[in-house]
Amino acid sequence: MRPSDRTQGATLIVSLLFVMLILAVIMSVTAQVTLATRRSSVDQDAIVRAQFAAESGAARVQARLRVMGGLLGSASLPPDGAQVMSDLAALCGLSSLPAAADGATLCTLNPTTGLNSAATGVNARVSLLVNAVNQQAFLEAGIAAATPEVRSRFWSDLFSGTQGVPLNGDQDASTYTVSYGLKPLAVIRDSATQYRVTFEVPDVVVTGRAGAATRTVRVRSNLPTLNLLVSQPSLAPYALLTNHHFNSAASENSSDRITFTSRTLFSGPVHTNQQFMFQGKPWFGGAVTSAGCPAGSLGPQCNAITKAAAQPGAYFAGTYRSAADMTPSASAPTECATGDTACAANPSIAPTFAAGVDWDSPVLPLPINGNNQQAAAQAGGIAIAGNVSSLSLYRDTVGGQDVQRVTFTTDASGAPVTTQLAFGTDRRLRILAPDGSWQDATRNPDGTFAPGTPAAGFNGVIHVSGNVGSLNAGPNAASGAAIAPFAGVTLAADGDIDITSDLRYADPPCSGAHTRNPDGTVTPAPCTNLNAQNILGIYASQGNVNLIRPGNGKATELGNNPTIHAVLMAGQGAVQVDGYNTGGALGSVNLIGGVIENYYGAFGTTSGDVQQTGYSRNFVFDPRTLAGLRPPYFPTAETWTVGLYDGATPVAEPRLRGDTVSTAGNP
Predict the structure, then answer these.
(1) Torsion angle, alpha carbons of 526, 529, 533, 535, to 10
(2) Which residues pair with 264 in a beta bridge?
(3) Between 20 and 30 A from 340 (CA), which of 172, 387, 518, 657?
């Protein structure tokens, strides 16, 4: 039977209602999904912003440590040892440092509270750092108006220990919270001229927040323990260091300057407290620094504390150029005569600074006496009263053992007295007894030696309170070794030291000479034996180091092209050739080591580029001194430095570049 129209209409209405219900359900579900998606996007955005905020907080801590590294890179203390000791005592919270042996811990520090102080003014615990880094250094680091109080607050906050100081901030509608401080641990005495403040670089934990979302970031340090090294640096690591860059006081008064020419080839660091003059194309393989003190200004007007008279610059064939006026730049200056168009393409004066140059370096004052060396000799070396007519250093064999011989003749008692000593790898002294046998040597109260036990130890220092009339290599002068392969020796004298023979290492670190190639480049002398341990320091504290040329009528003299392996220093005089301007040309002094001197001593004379009298210089720097090998108790700079170190290795800044751990919080 055919359905009625009424029944069909009802069915259609029910179907439409069902379809509408389904559409409503679909629309409801779609709306819920859209809302959830929008909510999820908002939450995800908050999480990302919280993460970025936390990472920004970690970056802020790293930036603070980077500023620290930059500031310490310019740190220097005045030549006032008493003030340095007082500041180190204050860092320990003491009125004075306790007496202690080398290597002893002077105090332990509180890693929780660190060096922080709530007091106003300058915190005495950080006065060492306040004095070491001046206001100008802070200004260059972007910290203006850095009064002593501001600098004190910076260092106090930096070394605030576990409790740290808040370094909170906000970014892009999010915030981060972090509290951070370095943890000081101890002050250690390495020696009378070096102290260490050890500290820990803790992890950085930063919490970032954006809305209800949080993220915690932890960044670990790659060097968890570091040292602030407070020291008087050794003067040994210089190829050349001059206080006055003149031959003598008379030369300085007449402005008769020393000239570096195309024959000048230095491979190691070169420094003067005054100003250089260049002619031709001298080559410097190491860093070159100049304090810029004009002639006659060293002292009250230009010194380690103030450089009011300093003029950073140099002379080019007699023409002075300030660092600001050097062309094409202060780091690579050249000079041409006015109107010399050919010179523009190939400048006639063009020094090469392979390792950089600084025309405004600090003044490095030289010590004025040998008190430290005398004290070391009296405590554990060889202390000789009066003048020494002859002192021989040479390698020998005693009882089948490789030894370093030390033989000297004095006349303090009115008649010549010769003492013959030797030591081996155990550094115990032996003496040649009157019966011709070698016996253990005991040190007498007056510093002399006699057969007896126990055998005295030797710390490597020989001090002479007068002059050394002839320093030589004894029977090894012609071709043998003056210094045994295991020996480190420093000879210091209050007066002159006359070198009268070759002085060679048994195991030299370098060989040959620097070579100027046809294209103008320089091939440095090969230094491939850098594990060698023998080293010699020669220091005349108030006199000269004289190289005695042939023809002086002395019992022993240098020959042509002599070889000297040593670091030579004249604190108040010069390292020079005796009679440099008489006789004929004698070849070159072949030096492996360095020269430190008050005045730039003369070695010979030239006409143009041709040697006329005396010696020319063939100096090869001993790179082992830069790596820490020094003659024992060799003089140190009068100024103190503060540097950041990982053990014995300098560090630019503490780095937070270890593993990064991010922990999610609530969305």
Answers:
(1) -20
(2) none
(3) 518
The predicted pLDDT at position 221 comes to 85
Burial of 69 (0-12, 13-18, 19+ CB in 10 A): middle
Sequence-separated (6 or more) residues with CB below 8 Å from residue 133: 71, 72, 74, 75, 151, 642
DSSP string, 337-377: -TT-HHHHHS-SB--EETT-EESSPPP-PPPS--HHHHHHH
**What share of residues in the chain are helix, strand, coil (percent, to 5)?**
20, 35, 45
Note the Cα 654 to chain centre separation in Å.
18
Starting at the edge strand that comes first in sequence, how are the strands of the sheet with 313-316 ordered? 277-278, 313-316, 319-322
- Greater confidence (425 vs 647) lies with 425
Q: What is the pLDDT of residues 471-514, one digit of tens each?
A: 999 999 999 999 999 999 999 999 999 999 999 999 999 999 99
Phi, psi torsion values for 529, nearest 5 degrees:
-110, 60
Asked whether the beta carbons of 149 and 122 are under 8 A apart, the reply is yes
Distance CA 593, CA 430 (A): 29
Structure tokens that stand for 655 in this block: 């780095």
Q: Which residue has the tokens 């604190």?
A: 571
pLDDT given for residue 24 in this prediction? 64
**pLDDT at 441 (0 to 100):** 97
Over 70: is that where the pLDDT of 7 sits? Answer: no
CA 106 from centre of chain: 24
- Which residues fall within 8 angstroms of residue 252, CB to CB, at 6 or more apart? 244, 246, 295, 296
Mean of the per-residue pLDDT values for the chain?
90
The single-letter DSSP state of residue 332 is S
**Could you say which DSSP state residue 15 is in?**
H
Cα-based angle 155, 161, 167 (whole degrees, multiple of 5) = 70
How far is Cα of residue 439 from the mean position of the Cα atoms in its chain? 42
C-alpha closest to that of 274 among 253, 247, 295, 301: 295
Q: What is the pLDDT of residue 35?
A: 44
What distance in Å separates the CA atoms of residue 397 and residue 582, rounded to the nearest whole number?
40
**Residue 230, token pair as written in the block:** 């407070």
- 20: part of which helix (H) or strand (E)? helix 5-72
Band of pLDDT at residue 42, cut at 50, 70 and 90 = low
Predicted pLDDT at 12: 65
Residues 153, 138 contacting (CB under 8 angstroms):
no
pLDDT at 544 over 50: yes
Total-model pTM: 0.81
CA distances from residue 429 to 138, 308, 388, 422, 439 in whole angstroms, order as listed:
53, 51, 20, 6, 9
The pLDDT tens digits for 11-30 are 667 666 676 777 665 665 55
Upstream peptide bond of 328 is cis (omega within 30 degrees of 0): yes
Six-digit token string for 497: 């030291």
Rg (C-alpha) for the chain, rounded Å, is 35
Amino acid at 539: Y
